[in-house]
Amino acid sequence: GALVYQYPRRTICKSGTSMRMECQAVGFQATSVAWYRQSPQKTFELIALSTVNSAIKYEQNFTQEKFPISHPNLSFSSMTVLNAYLEDRGLYLCGARDWESQNTLYFGAGTRLSVL
Amino acid sequence: GDSVTQKQGQVTLSEDDFLFINCTYSTTTYPTLLWYVQYPGQGPQLLLKVTTANNKGISRGFEATYDKGTTSFHLQKASVQESDSAVYFCALVDKGGNYKPTFGKGTSLVVHP
Q1: Which pLDDT score is estimated for B96?
Q2: Which pLDDT score, from 0 to 100, does residue A51 have?
Q3: Are A110 and B46 a contacting pair at CB < 8 A?
Q4: Fewer Cβ within 10 Å of end Cβ, chain A: N or C?
């Protein structure tokens, strides 16, 4: 089956520092990866969509300068939160889709970011 | 742009009750509609999806019908169990070139034994 692993599961960083999170697809080829942030109220915010061999598309209010993303192959993606502050807290979810199920995203368990 | 509306923030039921979670959508395209379920401490899991209008998706006792006329995709289950307690998200994916999954705000289901 299609599985997505995210690590770390939880992380705490000091205000103004940066934190990198990773996303690994197992059992399928992740042609596209969507990074979301989920608020405590459970609302999803789409940060960016990354498709192999295409430019990464960032949503309004999110920039490459703040959330640089790497998607070097069909099984791995990473995102860094640069200069994290309190408003960056939340659960960061990675959703990946494959060739066969183009409209289905498989999610990891997320990386929960706390900022002190 | 696309949008998904879930009117109910929380639904509280007892075991064996009938479940109905409201979901309506708005789009100018021909989307795929999905329901995801998120258990505490986990990421969202696909529950069911329907790619064609007027079709029904069924999984684990849950069902939802893609109703293009009323632009709805309500989730139902005849008899809920305590283990169904989770947050349920309705989602829409544009099948065209602009792939951008859109999620509703989620409905928290609490089932009491």
Answers
A1: 65
A2: 87
A3: no
A4: N
Res. A75: pLDDT tops 70 = yes
Q: Check A108 against B44: CB less than 8 A apart.
A: no
Among the partner residues A6, A104, A110, nearest to B49 by beta-carbon distance: A104
A15 touches chain B (CB under 8 A): no
Q: Label residue B31 exposed, middle or buried (CB < 10 Å: 0-12, 13-18, 19+).
A: buried
| Whether the bond into B31 is cis, omega within 30 of 0 | no
Residues of chain B with pLDDT under 50: none
Alpha-carbon gap, residue B31 to B74, rounded angstroms: 15
Looking at chain A, which runs of residues are DSSP E strands? 3-7, 10-13, 19-26, 32-38, 44-51, 57-58, 69-73, 76-81, 90-97, 106-107, 111-115
CA distance B70 to B15: 30
